[in-house]
Amino acid sequence: MTRDETQPTAPSAATPDTAETGRESEGTRSREAADQSVVLNQGRRSTIPSGAWIIIVGALMTVGLWGLSRFSAILAPAFLALTLVLTIRPIHRFMVRRGVPKWVSAIASILVLVLTLSLVIGVTVLAFLPLPDVIASYQRDFTRMVNDISDFLENNQFLQEQGYDVSGIDTLLGQLDLNTIMSTVGTLINQISGFGGLLAVIALSIFFIVIDTMTMDARSSIVEKAEPELHEALSGFEGRVRQYWLVSTIFGAIVAVFDWIALEALGIPLSLAWAVIAFVTNYIPNIGFILGVVPPALIGLLEGGWQLMLWVIVAYSLINFVIQSLIQPKFTADAVGLSVTVTFLSLMVWGVVIGPLGALLAVPLTLFFKAILVDSSTSTRWLDAFLISESEAERKLSSGRYEVTYSSPHMWGGLPTVVARAARGIKRPAGGSEKVKQRRIMRRRSARRE
């Protein structure tokens, strides 16, 4: 046989155009079949509408807030201690870098916090001790003012022509008694003096937190390796809450000093006490200014009439507008960034859940839960649209904070699938819905080839 006859005949090769067309046709049919399979699987999977997810999350948050309210007497002082420790943590780190032993730095941090809190409470108690005697000195003026208001309401023809019934207001004014007000003030002073128990809980919490966090390198590395986004969110919370406390304290002290000077110039009694109130209420968002201006305005009314009260309100308004409305927001914008509505609602919610201490912790608590529930995952950062201000949203958008692809809840299965995967410790895919589809298609192609 010839050489051509002994070798097997090779199959004739197709032209390049024909081969390319065949591969494109086969790839198109494979993609269509895979996409159809994905659609069918999605149709069989139990899905939950986004509105239902909102209701479920709201119900879970309600239960969680109720649980927090049951243990607020312990959790609120402990959280306050935690945020205070985070605030002074740079002092500890600075001393350690300078070669100071860690236990010495820890003791110094504890002393700084405890002495600061004791100083604030001590000054508050001392400033308010003369308050009952000052109020008692206005007994005659208070009675005259109440009678004048009652006579004005009873003899006002305009109110009578409009059909307003002023009998209820007149009855309420008749029940006003300065002795009752004095007893209320005395109870308030006793409660302030009783903050020693709260201070003891805060001091103990500070002690254990400082001792337990003298070094956090290994534990921080564990969280960063396991959940880098959560580590980033918690680190951001530490920086924001530190900046919030420091800026609020500094500007609160500045406002208190200017208020004290203005009240002294106007001749308002107990000007130091009202300055302390202005300092404390600076931590209360939105309504702190109103709470701080009411007491000195009322004392001004009793001391010098309507004119002096108006001067007090004008002085407080000017100081508050210049310092708290024009200057302070430039320093706290990066730390807080919450919208005015969210800040106000957080004040109401935490005030109900925790009590009076919740008014002071409204912003730090909101920042903490925002960090662990919103900022800790790329799939939930879109909730910032309902939480932060427009300027903060623009800043984050320009920094590329939201340049991620999100996957909707139905792409990850219904509620039974979510619960089952959470119980098994299976994490949600980090990519978006398109990436999830591509991964499923690739797995099916690999299975067919095998």
UniProtKB/TrEMBL annotation:
- The ranges of region (Disordered) come to 1-36, 428-450
**Can the keyword Membrane be found in this entry's annotation?**
yes
Membrane spanning residue stretches: 50-68, 74-91, 103-129, 192-211, 244-263, 283-301, 308-327, 347-373
Q: Does the keyword NADP apply?
A: no
Record's compositionally biased regions (Low complexity): 7-19
Bias (Basic and acidic residues) ranges: 20-34
Under the heading InterPro entries, the entry gives: AI-2E-like (IPR002549)
Signal peptide start and end residues: none
Location in or out of the cell: Membrane
Entry's family note: Belongs to the autoinducer-2 exporter (AI-2E) (TC 2.A.86) family.
What protein does this entry describe?
AI-2E family transporter
| Provenance organism | Flaviflexus salsibiostraticola
